[in-house]
Amino acid sequence: GAVVSQHPSWVICKSGTSVKIECRSLDFQATTMFWYRQFPKQSLMLMATSNEGSKATYEQGVEKDKFLINHASLTLSTLTVTSAHPEDSSFYICSAIFTSGSKNTQYFGPGTRLTVL
Amino acid sequence: GEDVEQSLFLSVREGDSSVINCTYTDSSSTYLYWYKQEPGAGLQLLTYIFSNMDMKQDQRLTVLLNKKDKHLSLRIADTQTGDSAIYFCAEKDTGRRALTFGSGTRLQVQP
Fold first, then answer.
1. A53 backbone φψ class: left, alpha, beta (φ>0; ψ -120 to 50)
2. DSSP symbols for B30-54
3. In a structure prediction context, what are the per-residue pLDDT tens digits for chain A, which is 117 residues long?
4. Parallel, antiparallel or unpaired: strands B9-13 and B105-110
């Protein structure tokens, strides 16, 4: 099946620093990837839609200058959390759309746990 | 906007059947999904159903969809301790490619 990886799987950083998270589709090309955030014991909330070769589309309430998304190739999207603060600590999950014929299936990465001290 | 709701917790004994329920509000949902999340891990797609179907069975999993009532259920037959996890239902409508998730149901399987 289609595989999506994320790197790193967990990261601890100091307040004020920036952290980059990578999302890769390993065995397929994805023109569309999504970034979700999950707080403890809560559901996944969509942050933004990452489109290859164009600007990301952010959900209402998500600061685009704080969460920078770059989808530079058909297999890689990156999320950079700039000037991270403790309230940014969360589980960040990406997904990629796998297209087969007319069928689109969304596959999820294993997630990246960010802890900001 | 779209809303997807699930009960928060379900406890069953090993070998029993588990039924996890989900309700949604979006009448233009095209696909409805069930995902499994184990502690500290990402989401694993279990199964999905197209909105014009009533039922889908895949080994121990049975999905029932009542489109009129906007109610989706996941039945796990012969539940095992390895089935303990959080189960999310999610829906996708024709206008969006992203999914809207429910709050998740924590399934605890007692040996």
1. left
2. EEEEEEEE-TT--EEEEEEEETT-S
3. 678 999 999 999 999 999 999 999 998 999 899 999 988 878 889 999 998 888 899 999 999 999 999 998 999 999 999 999 999 999 999 999 888 887 778 889 999 999 999
4. parallel
φ, ψ of residue A41 in degrees (nearest 5): 60, 25
How many CA atoms lie within 13 Å of A6's alpha carbon, on the beta-carbon side?
Answer: 29
Q: Give CA–CA dist A40/B18, Å, rounded.
A: 24
Burial annotation A16-46 (CB, 10 A radius, 16+ → b, else e): eeebebbbbbeebebebbbbbbbeeeebbeb
Give which of B42, B9, B15 is closest to B108, Cα–Cα: B9
B51-77: b or e for each residue (b if 16 or more CB lie within 10 Å)? beeeeeeeeeebbbbeeeebebbbbbe
* Chain B residues close to A40, C-beta within 8 Å: none
CA distances from B105 to A60, A97, B32 (A): 26, 25, 16
Rounded to the nearest angstrom, the gap between the alpha carbon of residue A104 and the centroid of all alpha carbons in its chain is 19
Chain A interface includes B1 (CB < 8 A): no
Q: How far is B92 from chain A (nearest CA, A)?
A: 10
